[in-house]
Amino acid sequence: MAQLACILLAAGEGKRFKSKLPKPLQRLCGRSLIDHVLGPLESLGAEKIVMVVGGGREQIYEAARGRPVEFCVQEQPIGTGHAVLCAEQALRGFEGTVLVTCADIPLVSQATLQRLVDAHQAQRAEATILTAIMPDPTGYGRIVRSRDGRVRAIVEHRDATDEIRQIQEINAGIYCFRSASLFDELRRVKPDNVQGEYYLPDVIGRYVAAGDIVTAVQAENADEVVGINTRRHLATAEQVARDRARHRLLEEGVTLVAPDTVYVDSTVRVGCDTTIYPGAIILGETQIGEDCEIGPYTSIENCTIGNGVRVRHGAVLSNCAVGNNAMVGPYSHVRSDSEVGDEALVGSFVEVVRSRLGNGAKQLHFGYVGDTQVGDGANIGAGAVTCNYDGVDKHETVIAEGAFIGSNSVLVAPVRVGRKAYVAAGSVITEDVSEESLGIARQRQTVKDDWSGPGKK
Q: What residues does CATH 3.90.550.10 cover in the chain?
């Protein structure tokens, strides 16, 4: 197989986004634009991936940390042709196919890119263009063909005549080139256009004029090549990406009761026979097991959820883990660094943060568990809370295996309730309660007879 290198153009400033983030780092369906593009490029098995960056590059370096990418800098944004030329030094000595794509074209699949590379190499072309038929081609460069169907030129929208603007076949901005001639031809490109920039598509005209082979591969779906230059474009691409994510879940055996209402990131993984109800929001690196029920209007982000779990109406889970056959909700909140064990129950209006509920543990009604280790089978009554913050530091509470915490109790950390110990309802516990004992901390009840209220004389 012929050698392959990739140039990823990521130097766009994205001024129309009016954002502190560089355009390549704008988020799409849970990931940055460059992350969407780098995944398929890495799957192609390229010998080298060179990313051309410009403004905001320090942020891009950080975002791409650990990826197999070499960087080069385009100091001035003077066109795509100049940007590719900036990668020449990084590819010095390389002989093979150079695939050029852009960070703001994030929806192209690995399969489409592979088809482009294969066609280019099979036809031994000097250049191969990825094109698409776009119902509304406004803003895109048009593919101008001769009568026999050969590519004759690419004309940018700004420079096109009214007749050329009627053409619906557009340049997707993704190309394959033979490395031997690419950079020499780029040096001959002139900024003879409205923008005064060095256009990469002008190389195509030079190849055509020289009689070299220039071919085109048409994307099967125009949605793949949607370019992103504004937040409106980003919103359009977001809809496409989320439709894809939902379709993938359906194909993998997940039931979406009302698919259009489910908001799911492309990074989410869900096991078969799980049902997701309307209004659910599932984000980030979330993994959900088989046979689960994800209730309506739930929010789940960066969580690991086992098999047979019920997340009920309105529950919010973030950066936590839930074991097999557990239940969370309705209207509960399980926050960062928390773990809900197998068959554990977290009920309505309960908040859990930086805590572990052991297997079979329960807190079914109201309450707060913070910085707490709850043993297997422990039962926390309605309205009970752990006071983990003294105004300066956080402290830990331990509720051991099989312990019972009565309703409306307050455990003031640091404190430990021993195995199978009881805390009486309404107690404020400030000292440890030993195993199999009863902790009571409340004032003795007083009853005054013949009392009819404050107005009695």
A: 4-225
**d(C-alpha 3, C-alpha 141), whole Å:** 29
**pLDDT tens profile 375-410:** 999 999 999 999 999 999 999 999 999 999 999 999
* Confidence (pLDDT) at 215: 94
Q: What are phi and psi of 237, to 5 degrees?
A: -65, -35
Q: How far is the C-alpha of 64 from the C-alpha of 51, rounded, in Å? A: 10
Find tokens 């009881």 and name the residue.
422
**Topology given in CATH for the domain delimited by 4-225:** Spore Coat Polysaccharide Biosynthesis Protein SpsA; Chain A (3.90.550)
Tell me 253's DSSP state.
Answer: T
Q: Which residues contact 113 (CB under 8 A, 6 or more apart)?
A: 40, 41, 44, 99, 101, 174
**At the fourth CATH level, which superfamily is domain 248-439?**
Hexapeptide repeat proteins (2.160.10.10)
DSSP string, 51-113: EEE-TTHHHHHHHTTTSS-EEEE-SS---HHHHHHTTTGGGTT--SEEEEEETT-TT--HHHH
**Distances 381 to 305, 327, 349, 399, 411 between C-alpha atoms, Å:** 25, 16, 13, 13, 12
Give the whole-angstrom CA distance, residue 14 versus residue 149: 35
The catalytically annotated residue of 157, 233, 365, 395 is: 365
pLDDT band, residue 197 (cuts 50/70/90): confident
> In which residue ranges of the chain is CATH 2.160.10.10 found?
248-439
Kindly state the DSSP code that residue 386 receives in the 8-state scheme. E
Does residue 275 contact residue 258 with C-beta atoms inside 8 Å?
A: no
Is residue 365 annotated as a catalytic residue, yes or no? yes
Tell me the residue type at 22.
P
**Contact by Cβ (8 Å): 302, 318:** yes
pLDDT digits (tens, 9 = 90+) for 113-152: 999 999 999 999 999 999 999 999 988 899 999 888 889 8
